[in-house]
Amino acid sequence: MNNFFPAVLRLIAKLVILAIAVIAVAVIVFWTPGKPADELAERWATPPSLFMDLHGMQVHIRDEGPRNDPEPVILLHGTSASLHTWEGWAEHLAQHRRVIRMDLPGFGLTGPHPREDYHITAYSEFVIALADSLQIDKFVLAGNSLGGRIAWTTAAVAPERVTRLILVDPSGGYPLPPKSMPLAFHVAQLPVLGQLMDYMLPRFMVRNSLENVYANPDLVTDELVDLYYDMARREGNRQALRQRFQQDDNGHEQAIIRSLEQPTLILWGAQDRLIPVANGYEYARDVRNSELVVFPDLGHIPQEEDPDQSLQPVLNFLGLAEQR
C-alpha cells in the first residue's frame, strides 16, 4: 500500500510527459502559420474580384451583371466558406441580374472583424452597410447556412430593403441537433484543441469537413480543398471562427421567422447532416409566403455541390427560367 500512490504518481507523470510529447510532435508536423490576404489574393482574388473599404476591413467582393438592375441579388456564404461557393450561380445569374457576393467578416480574404464582433446583428448591419456603400436601395437576399440566417435576420430588421429571400439550408431558428458535424467545427469549439488550431491545421481535417457537408464526397476535388484550406489559413480567420462559435446567440427565433413577409424560396438538401431537412419543413410552415424545394441527392451546400440543379428553382422564383 505504501508503494501504491508513488507508483500511480509516476504513471500519471509519464502520461503527462507522453501527452506533451504527442502535442509537440503534432504541432511540428501540422504547423500551419497564417498567410496574409495579399499573398492568397494572387490565386483567389483574380478579376472580377475587388476590395472595398468597409467597417475598417478590406472586404473581398465580386459585383457582376447589369448596373441598371433595380433589385440586385446579394449572396451570403456560410461558415468557413467564401464568395467562391456561389460561382456556379453567379456565372448564370449575372447574365440577367446584378449579382453581388462577398467574403463575410471573419472568413475568406476579408478576414477578421476589427472589433471581433461576429454576432448575427453585426453581420446584418454589415450587409446593410455594404448595400448603402454600393448605393443599392432594394435587393434580393440569398444565403446558405450562416448566410441564410443572416439573410432572414436582415429581412426582418429591414423589410423595406429586402424584397425577396432565398434561403439555402439556413441555420438558426430551430433547435434540432445535427446528425453529423464537420470535424473542423468540432475542434474549433474545444477549449484547448480549438486554440491549438490557431497554429496548426491538418489538410485532412479540411477535406474531412467538406466531405461531411457534401452528399457525394467524390465531388470534393483537390482544388476545392485548396480553396477552403487557404481561406482557413488567412491571417486571423481561425481565431475568428472560434470567436464566432463563442458568440453564437442561436436561440428560439421562430417569432422572428414568423414575422417575415417577403416572398421566400427555401432550398434544402435532403442529405444535409449538419442541419437536417426537418428544419426546412419548419421554415416552410412558419414563413407565410414561402415555397420549399428539397433536393433528394444533395447535402448542406447545394449551390456548390450541384449549381445547375439548385439554380433552377431560383430562376423560376426570379422569373428568369425562360432566359436560361
From TrEMBL:
Superkingdom in the source lineage: Bacteria
SUPFAM superfamilies per the UniProt record, alphabetical: alpha/beta-Hydrolases
Keywords: Hydrolase, Membrane, Transmembrane, Transmembrane helix
Membrane-spanning intervals of the chain: 12-31
Residues in AB hydrolase-1 domain copies: 72-307
Keyword Transmembrane: yes
MF term (GO), any: hydrolase activity
Pfam families (UniProt xref): Abhydrolase_1
InterPro entries per record: AB_hydrolase_1 (IPR000073), AB_hydrolase_fold (IPR029058)
Entry protein name: Alpha/beta hydrolase
Native source organism of the sequence: Pseudidiomarina salinarum
